[in-house]
Amino acid sequence: MGVRSERSRNLLNDNAIRTPPLVLCAHGTANPAGQQVVLDLLAATRRQLPGVRVEAAYVDVQAPGPGDVVADLYDASDPPVIVPLLLSTGYHVEVDIDRVVHAHPGTRATSALGPAPLLADTMITRCAESGVEPSDAVVFAAAGSSRPQAARDAEQAAALFAERRAGSGPVLLGYGSASSPSIPEAVARLRADGASRVAIAAYLLGPGHFHDKLHHAGADLVTAPLGADERLVQQAVVRYRAALD
Question: What distance in Å separates the CA atoms of residue 175 and residue 157, rounded to the nearest whole number?
Fold first, then answer.
């Protein structure tokens, strides 16, 4: 048995009594404000888990990638846990992150950050902050993916949000890409159904390309993204701790 294989076996045997590092794996963006959201989430998660080494990785646009971060942690301590800072289970979770897990025995990856009640609560807060009225029709704006699980996740996230708006205006799911209806189509459909005012609730982690496009979709107002809300930190910690059970 090679040295690395022996080390892998030892790490797996010892993992139950150790505290694995945590890798928060975001998409990545060229937008500085969007980059800061991830850094703020990273700092807040470190405060929540003072005995755990917590690092950030990115599947696109930014570096380091999850493979590099996991390799560094794997050689230095225990196989880490990867928590995707992604709102649905799309290509990056099912392919990019999964590939890293299989390359490093003992490494675990959780499901995406959403859908989750904590995220739905954050969306309701963003609507209130942005001036969305109970009578407004709302497009629940997800990024979109060609992956079936991503669509199911978006539908569940929109349902959780709609439950919290029970008795208010209608909620219609719209996608930024890959799926239909598109966000402009969803806005137009609500107006055709008689909505006098339509808001877009941005189901996005932070500012960037997708959020910029929402301002050109024909709605009366657009909410801020989820951002570095404490509830997202709580959700990441929930995912991490569940992986240890």
Answer: 13
Cα separation of the two ends of the chain = 30
**pLDDT tens-digit series, residues 104-156:** 999 999 999 999 999 999 999 999 999 999 999 999 999 988 888 889 999 99
Q: Which residue has the tokens 């929540």?
A: 48
Give backbone dihedrals phi and psi of 147, rounded to 5 degrees, phi first: -80, 130
CA angle 92/98/103 to nearest 5° reads 135
Report yes or no: 26 and 93 within 8 Å, Cβ to Cβ: no
What is the rounded (10 degree) CA torsion for 79, 85, 90, 91? -60
Closest-CA residue to 177 (of 221, 209, 225): 209
171: Cβ–Cβ under 8 A, 6 or more apart, which residues? Answer: 137, 138, 139, 140, 158, 161, 162, 165
CA-CA distance, 208 to 37, in Å (whole number)? 11
| Separation CA 191–CA 14 (nearest Å) | 59
SS3 177: coil
Looking at this protein, which amino acid is placed at residue 140? F
Phi, psi dihedral angles at 65 (to 5 degrees): -80, 165
The b/e string for 111-132 (b: 16+ C-beta within 10 A; e otherwise) is: bbbbbbebbbebbbbbbeeeeb
Distance from C-alpha of 160 to C-alpha of 90, rounded to nearest angstrom: 19
